[in-house]
Amino acid sequence: MDNSIITTEPLMPRETAVHEPHEHVFIPQHRHHFETEEQQREAGSFGMWLFLLTEIMFFGGLFFAYLLYRNWYYDAFVPASNFLSVKLGGANTAILITSGFFMALAVWAAEMRNKQVLVWTLVLTMIFGWAFIGIKGVEWHDEWVHHHIPGAGFDIAEFVNPSAHGITDQKAIPPDMAQHSQIFFFLYFGMTGMHALHMIIGLGLLLWLLWRAQRGDFTAGYVAPIENFALYWHFVDIVWLFLFPLLYLINRHPLS
Amino acid sequence: MTHVAQQPQEQHYHDPANVTNPEHASHHIVTPAVYGIVYATLLAFTILTIFAADWNLGVFNPVVALAIACTKAVVVILFFMHVKYQSNLIKMTVASGFFTFIVLITMTLSDYMSRAWGLW
Lengths: 256, 120
What we know:
The structure holds 2 protein chains of 2 kinds. Chain A is about 65% helix and about 0% strand. Chain A is an all-alpha fold. In chain A, helix 1 packs across helix 2. Among the domains of chain B are: about 30-80; about 85-115. In chain B, helix 1 (about 30-55) packs antiparallel against helix 2. Chain B is flat and about 55 Å long. The chains are: A mainly alpha, B mainly alpha.
């Protein structure tokens, strides 16, 4: 076992451990391969962030596809995008931010070792999370009713002849271009669907965290699972903060 | 745990120069007041972006919408995700992720643009 640091010069005082007398508090969650609890905590956050970076790349690919196809088939993307309800999308944005706010408070409650506040903030995070999924379901149902699901059942009638379908504020587009609105809805369902899948996974994890929080696991100094889950939840929020303007808002005033 | 490896005291390299993660650094706990301000800011920006979409700003509509979205994302990252209070290692990790993403977007976009040069 020869893994000690070999130096060719005498160690300078600044490189030598000066172990000042201080209090060491040993806590059960502190793993022996970490020197301090703070180091363990930072290693955990670091690992969580590395995972989130892969998620940035995952959603980034979808965002890039949207950017590219919106430039290629701009005339098809405008009426398709404007079919979406800004009211429902905006309400969902507020609901998701509220859910994130309660998750942030949950981290504070765990730090403060307040079990009751922790459990209730987790419950509120879940309620607002499911409310988001519910409204998303209503929106998806609207698309289904209007035959906006890409595939054999897709109907371009509303884009080719909007006035016949009671749509007065959108320009009619030729059938070949209207077919490309399928790409908008393909990306719309892909992006919001992947976002919703992340939320459903998160809501499942929340159930598990809630059960453990109720047991008192996170209110005795061990907050890492709550903290790292909060990072995940806030990341999913951020994805929506970009999805909302890109899918719902930026096509309201088409360039002629 | 019967055997405890005890290195000689003078060879135990402790990295005192590691100022980014000083030992026994106090952990910063963000208060509900800060979270409340962040929450209000995010809601205000959400309302702002919806109103901004109603004005005809021409080519600047997407620019304004994305600028507001980026502002909101930065606020979430700094305060809700505690990056403002984290070590430089975490700050660099987060920044490198977004930097790499921008590099990938730029390279892919320049490829698509140069292949259809003049046709867009």
